[in-house]
């Protein structure tokens, strides 16, 4: 039996995660609408999709309610990815971060509710665990946020919860843990560590680790995140709806280990990279020491089965960066 085809709105569809989701769902024959203002996303991430008859780009801003109304017309599912990421950015400019991540979120959610979409799935964040020291992180135990960014992502969860209870819209929040993979932007002041380190190694420049390198993260390859979005979209288990799920691999790697693995993988392409020195700098404000997800809830209620370990994902990513950005 052929699976049904859906119309899916991907906000932030020109960004790292959004453009990967777009490719995946187009490949499966679904219709994809992208709403993006290119604040941090790039046209080159989606250029190859523009001629696909199942793809529509709406250049617009989630802070503008009429743009959101236009984007949700006739849509079955919303995968809301648009936001201003980065803890440091939110510390420098909390007002813009709040406008986009909270007011923009509320606009997309309200428009989705008005349009009676089947379900609203959104990018939540592991930053919501804040100062809670318990490991592994389980969805029900969170601490106090440690940055304006973390506040915005937690407020998203609160709004989703209230909207599902008050208006009956189905929502699922996916708390992403340090996602990485093809198309993640290596440039700019707020680049994530993996693409930033890869680019520095490729240029034979020394990467700088904030702190002593013993901080650890549950680095999560993009294909595991795509799987979670699809499962969240398709689940019919009522226990999985109107709740949040950790979206991670369920293992943690220190920054020192990460950088060693990256250096090793990259030196397979260019042996000189093995000689690049690592530099250590001060810790960053708002960073938590350790982050590790329990993925039991996602396994139990969504049947999540991540296919890529951090190491396997890293191999794929390094190859992609080498082939595309060298
Ligand atoms: P990204 O910056 O690559 O993508 C975000 C996209 O949203 C960009 O294309 C950007 O142009 C768009 N955007 C920003 N402001 C907008 C606005 N006002 N109107 C319309 N579009 C707007 O980031 P990403 O890593 O792909 O992150 C996607 C989502 O996942 C974000 O919500 C982020 O907070 C969340 N998240 C990411 C990670 C991670 O490790 N990458 C971890 C936790 C949560």
Structure description:
The chain is of the alpha/beta class and 326 residues long. It has a domain at 7-179 and 220-250 and 292-307: NAD(P)-binding Rossmann-like Domain (Rossmann fold, 3-Layer(aba) Sandwich), CATH 3.40.50.720. The protein is 39% helix and 16% strand. The protein is built from ten helices and 13 strands. It has helices spanning 16-27, 65-72, 87-92, 94-114, 148-167, 193-202, 222-234, 255-267, 296-302, 310-325, and strands spanning 7-11, 31-36, 55-59, 77-80, 119-125, 171-176, 179-180, 208-210, 216-217, 220-221, 243-247, 253-254, 279-281. A seven-stranded parallel beta sheet has the order 3-2-1-4-5-6-11, sandwiched between helices. A two-stranded parallel sheet has the order 7-10. Strands 8-13 form a two-stranded parallel sheet. Helix 2 packs across helix 4 and helix 6 crosses helix 8. The radius of gyration is 19 Å and the shape is globular. The model has no long low-confidence stretch (mean pLDDT 96). Nicotinamide-adenine-dinucleotide binds at residues 12, 14-18, 35-41, 61-63, 81-85, 100, 104, 123, 125, 176, 178-179, 185, 192.
List its salient traits:
alpha/beta; Rossmann fold; two-stranded parallel ribbon; 10 helices; 13 strands; binds nicotinamide-adenine-dinucleotide
CATH superfamily of the domain at 7-179 and 220-250 and 292-307: NAD(P)-binding Rossmann-like Domain
User: SS-based structural class?
Assistant: alpha/beta
DSSP summary, beta strand count: 13
Provide the list of bound ligands, each named once: nicotinamide-adenine-dinucleotide
Task: Compute the number of helices.
Answer: 10
Average pLDDT taken over every residue: 96
Binned strand content? 15-25%
Query: If you compute it from the alpha carbons, what radius of gyration comes out, rounded to the nearest whole angstrom?
Result: 19 Å
Give me the strand/helix succession.
EHEEHEHHEHEEHEEEHEEHEHH
The amount of helix comes to 25-40%
Instruction: Give the distance, in angstroms, between the N- and C-terminal Cα atoms.
Output: 43 Å
